[in-house]
Amino acid sequence: MQLPTPVAGKRIAYGADSLQFGELRVPEGKGPFPVVVVIHGGCWLSQYNYQYMNHVSAALTKAGFATWNIEFRRVGNQGGGYPGTFQDIAQATDYVRELAKQYPVSGKDVVVMGHSAGGHLALWAAGRKSLPRNSPLYNKNPLKVKGVVSLAGIPDLTTYSSEKGSCNTAVEKLMGGLPAAVPQRYAETTPSPSLALKTPVRMVQGARDPIVPVSQAQNFVNHSSSKKNKAKVVLLPEAGHFDLVSPVSPVWPTIEQAVRELLEKRK
Predict the structure, then answer these.
(1) What mean pLDDT comes out for the span 230-257?
(2) Is 12 exposed, middle or buried (0-12, 13-18, 19+ CB in 10 A)?
(3) How far apart are CA 234 and CA 187, in angstroms?
């Protein structure tokens, strides 16, 4: 089903590069509204951009959430790949603090949502506090978020890079090498399952996804048997890869509810 193009959000630069911007959408009303940072996928490659998450952003805003749909340098863009892609994601996420000074949005009620490669980046953004100080990706005061909604995300880059599929070879391009060649880069950019001991995570996954296997979500969640593990797999038996980013799909209410639950959690 072809949806009409949603009204554009307010385009705001978070950095000096032409690709360092986001679109902010704010619900009608007084606020301050909780914020969903929206990170698009597309194999981390330059030919896919933020616009395919416009419908998701508009639907979430209609549901009462401010959305910050971010663009960033990707593989194929000057400065894209490691470390630039990750530095942009960090900078854009932390920029919510600045948005909260100028718009009726809350810098303390934030969920990060990403699709596919963007799901990987969303998980990474939420767990940056554990990065070593000598990493080029280190930031001493990353924005604390209420949770992560990973839509067909790819947390295990090492495994994914060794498998065959339409997106798998992009990992080597993103990282500047395979795991054996640049192990430290993979260590710094692979979201740790320990994130879920402190931050609630929803790994939303379609069982009929031909691009990202269900095992990516299951292995991330099952990594820890601790009772403190706040990660859950939300398995959608009939969903494919792109059903998760279509507000008219039967699974959309489940995704919207996942966001709502994370923002309503007080701990």
Answers:
(1) 93
(2) middle
(3) 26
User: What topology does CATH give the domain 10-264?
Assistant: Rossmann fold (3.40.50)
Average pLDDT over residues 232-257: 93
> How far is residue 95 CA from its own chain's centroid?
15
Alpha-carbon separation of residue 115 from 152, 154, 178, 211 (angstroms): 6, 9, 23, 12
Q: Is the peptide bond before 83 cis (omega within 30 degrees of 0)?
A: yes
Percent of the chain that is helix, strand, coil (3-state, to 5): 35, 20, 45
Query: Considering the chain, what is the average pLDDT of its residues?
Result: 94
Choose among 153, 136, 143: nearest CA to 255: 153
The alpha carbon of residue 168 and the mean position of all alpha carbons in its chain are separated, in whole angstroms, by: 18
Compute the distance between CA of residue 37 and CA of residue 252 in angstroms, rounded to an integer: 17
11 — pLDDT class (breaks 50, 70, 90): very high
Indicate the Cα dihedral angle 58, 249, 243, 73, nearest 10°: -10
Inter-helix orientation angle 252-264/54-62, to 10°:
60
Q: What is the pLDDT of residue 264?
A: 85
Above 90 in pLDDT, residue 18? yes
Residue with tokens 């969640």: 221
| Residue spans per domain, the chain | 10-264
Q: pTM score > 0.90 for this model?
A: yes
